[in-house]
Amino acid sequence: MQPYFYSLSEFIAMGEHGVFVWSCWAITIVMMLIMVIYSRRQRQALVKQLTIQQARQAQRNATSEASRL
Fold first, then answer.
1. Separation of alpha carbons 44 and 68, rounded Å
2. Suppose 5 and one of 10, 20, 36, 64 were both cysteines; which one would form an S-S bond, judging by CB atoms 3.0 to 4.6 Å apart?
3. Whole-angstrom Cα distance, residue 36 to residue 31?
4. What backbone torsions phi and psi does residue 24 show, to the nearest 5 degrees?
5. Tens of pLDDT along 36-57?
6. Helix segments in the chain, DSSP class H
7. Cα(29)–Cα(6) distance, integer angstroms
């Protein structure tokens, strides 16, 4: 059994297709990182928005209970 690549430089060059292969890998990894960062920021914004909404609802409930008395 013979190895397909005999050295690390041959592996990186990938038979003259290395630029295409490694740029695709880089683009994929960058896009996945962007998706993770975006999702975390969206989640943080949603949690903040829900916290504010709950506080407003609690304030409305307290005001309506005080007006009943």
1. 36
2. 10
3. 9
4. -65, -45
5. 999 999 999 999 999 999 999 9
6. 8-13, 18-68
7. 27
